[in-house]
Amino acid sequence: MAMTSGGFGSGPTRPPPDEEPRWLFGADSEPGTATANSPYDPSYPAGPVGVDFAEAYRIHSLAIARLSVLLTDDRAHAAQVTQAAFVALDLHLSEFGDLADALGYLQRKVIEKARIQRRHEKHPPPVGDPLIDALRALPGEQREAMVLGHWAGLGQADSAELLEVPLEEVERLNREARASIAAALGIAPPTPMPREPMPPEPVPPVPVPPVQRGSA
Length: 216
What we know:
Number of strands: 2
Strand content: under 5%
Helix content: 40-55%
Shape: elongated
Mean pLDDT: 75
Structural class: mainly alpha
Order of helices and strands: EEHHHHHHHH
Largest sheet: 2 strands, antiparallel
Distance between the termini: 114 Å
CATH topology of the domain at 49-122: Rna Polymerase Sigma Factor, Chain: A
Low-confidence stretches: 1-49
Number of helices: 8
């Protein structure tokens, strides 16, 4: 399938530069939340049994392109990673029962291909956006956990399954990534709320036996 300047085959065209943030993060989206009606939205419906490639591309191409951009170091590599993921999907369509399964496969392929790309691009050039530059400077696993959880809107359990690591590892990666980004941006990292001291347990009253008066 040939890659065009606007996408794959007859896919959506690339938006003009002034709309780039909307294309990258989704219109009206906030970091840490899934874009409404996107494949990352928990209410997103699974497709019918059997996967049609054109439908999978129509539904998932934007989310997969966004994921590729955030896990690679330039637009050209992101386009290559996205294309490779969809080519692999096309070769394995018979293995998936619905569009949700196809999305998980595409996400794993993007992570795999992006890791290969990052090994060859040791020092990505800055893009002029302090947040994106700080994200790109993270170690690979921290970057993946941060992108999946903060931008793609996946829960930590889903991120752990996708990255094939324990849940506790994803929690650690996110914690360290947030601290590194905060330091790069010159802001204080979020601190956990101190626990309130537990009140002492009440001491049960000691029963006092009645005084026995002697008889006269």
